[in-house]
Amino acid sequence: MANVGDRLHVHGHVVGQRDHQGEIIEVRGRGGSPPYVVRFDDGHESLMYPGPDAIVEPATAD
Questions:
Q1: What are the DSSP E strand ranges found in the chain?
Q2: What gap in Å lies between CA 39 and CA 26, rounded to an integer?
Q3: Rounded to whole angstroms, how far apart are CA atoms 53 and 51?
Q4: Best CA proximity match to 10, nearest among 20, 24, 18, 1
Q5: Which residues pair with 32 in a beta bridge?
Q6: Lower Cβ count inside 10 Å, N or C end of the chain?
Q7: What pLDDT is attached to residue 12?
């Protein structure tokens, strides 16, 4: 489950592949369920159905 503003951390699953991190900018599923629209740190946006190699990190309150 996720909320707008949470971070999605996708671990690389191939040797040498970097992890990817981004901000969830839209939650399209019910009750915080996927799919999520994610803006990755390199600026690209993608519709994601995160797999077991991904972790949702709650947004921190400032």
A1: 7-10, 20-27, 36-40, 45-48, 54-57
A2: 9
A3: 5
A4: 20
A5: none
A6: C
A7: 82
Token representation of residue 7: 């971070």
Adjacent-strand bridge partners of 39: 23, 45
Place of tokens 């939650």: 27
Query: Do 55 and 38 meet the contact criterion of CB atoms below 8 Å apart?
Result: no
The half-sphere exposure of 49 on its side-chain side, counting CA atoms within 13 A, is: 1
Longest dimension (CA), the chain: 36
Please write the tens of the pLDDT for every residue from 13-61: 778 778 999 999 999 999 999 999 999 999 999 999 999 999 999 998 6
- Tokens at residue 53, please? 């190699």
Contact 32, 18 (CB under 8 A): no
